[in-house]
Amino acid sequence: MGLRGRTNKGWSWDLSNVIGRNDFHFFGEGTFNAGLGANQTSFDDGGFSFLQNTVNLNMSKEFPDILQGFNFAYGAELRLENYQLYAGEEASYKNYNPEKASGAQGFPGYQPSDEADENRSTVGAYADVELDVTDRWLVAAAVRLENYSDFGFTSNFKLASRFKAADNFNLRGSVSTGFRAPSLQQVNFSSTFTTVQGGTIAEVKIAPNNSPITKAAGIAALNQEQSLNLSLGFTFQPVPEFSITLDAYRVTVKDRVVLSGQFSADDDSLNPALTKALKGLNVSLAQFFANAVNTTNQGIDLVLDYNKQAANRGFRALLAANFQDMTIDKINVPDLLNDTPEHRATFLTDREQKFILASAPPMKIATTLEYGFGKFSLGTRLTYFGEIELLGYGEDGLGINPMVPTDADESIYVEDKYIYGGKLVTDLYATVRFGSHVNLNVGADNLFNVHPDLGYVPVAAGWAFNNETGGPWDSVQMGGNGRRYFVRIGLQF
User: Fold this and answer.
1) Of the ranges 142-146, 266-270, 348-352, which is most confident?
2) Distance between CA 84 and CA 25 in Å, rounded?
C-alpha cells in the first residue's frame, strides 16, 4: 500500500510499503524411519519461512525549459528480510540404527543443526535524469547506491538513449551494471535428502555456506553476483493501433551462485575432514552453494501489440516472444577441489550445467487476446514453452541408462538424457469493474492442466526414469503444478 501526491513546488512524490511472507511446512505420510520400524508412518518434517518488507520513497519533477525537457527523479529504499529454517520432530531425522539410513525415508526432516534465523537489512538510494537534447534525441542516466548489512556497499549505473528517426520509428539502446547479493536462503539453507542414482539410494547433505563441512571442501564464503547488460532495439508504430518493438540483449554474469555437484564420503582423495564429517552424519554425498560459474545470455525480445478502442468497447491482441541462448563461460573451481580431473568434473557436472542452461529456455512465446465491453472484459493467454534437455546421473552427468540390461547390445546404450518437449499452456480470465475503485478478477491458469513431459531417454524401448525422487517431472518450463483457479479483488483508494 502507499500514498502519492504533488508538492506546491511541483514535485511528484510516492511513498509505499510492501510486505510479504511465505512458509513451507513439510509432512511425510506413508513412510517410516528404518531404525524405528513401521510403528510410525507419518512425520512432521519441519520447514522454512521468509519475510520481506520494503519501504520506498520516490520524488520526481519535470523542467520543460531545459533544452527540450528535463526530468529529475531520486529516491530511497529500506528493505528488511528474515529467513527461518525450523526442525521437524525427532523421529523425522534421527538415526536409531547406524546400519540403516537416518530419518523418515524419502524425505528426512530438518534437524536442529539445520535451524537458522537470519536477518538482513539493505539501504539504497538512487538518482535518475532524462534529458531531451533535441525533440528527437533523448539521453538518460541513473545511479543506484546500496549498502547491505552483510555484503557491504555497492554502486551501479545505467546509461540509455533513444533517437526518433521518424515520427513512428525510434531507435534505442542501453548499457548498465547489476549486483545481486546471495539470498539468505543460499547462504543458510541446510538439509539432508534421499536421491536415487543408477538404481542406488543415497543420502545427500546440502551444507550451509558457514558450515565446517563447506569449509573442509574449500568452498569460499559466498560473494555477490555482478553483471553487465547491453541492449539495442527499435520501436515502430505503422498505424496508431499497432506497434512493434524488437530488442537484442547481452547479459554477462560473474560469480553466479548455483548448487554444486555431489561429493562422495567414500572418496579417499578428498580432504579427510570432509569425508569424516559426512560419515559422522551418516550421509553418502554432500553438495554446496557456490559462486560456481560465469555465464552469458544473449537473445531477442519481440513484442507485437494491437490495441483498438471504440466507445465502450475495446480489443487487444498482444504477442510477446523471447529467443535466447545461454553459455557457461567459466567454471570457478575452488583450489581444494581443483586437484584432480574427477573433482573438477564433480564440482559442476554436465548434469548440473544442463540445469543452469535450462533456466534460460531457448524459446518462449505468449499471445494475449482480450475483449472488453462496458464494465466487463474477457481474456485468454496462450503461452508456448520451448523444448529443453536435462541429463541424468552418471560420470560427468552422463551415463548408461540403469534400466538397460548389462548384457544388452552396445548399440542401444545411450546417454542418460531427458527431453522435455515444447508445451502450450492456456490461461483464461475475466474482470468485472464496480465503479472506478473496485474490480473482481476470476480465472484459471493452465486451464487444460498441461504438465511437462515425463523425463525420458530417447530410445525405442522407452526405459523409465532416473529423475529426482520428488516425482517423475523435474521442475522445468511451466512447472509441475498444473491447473490453478483464482479469484482476486482489487481496491483503489
Assistant:
1) 142-146
2) 12
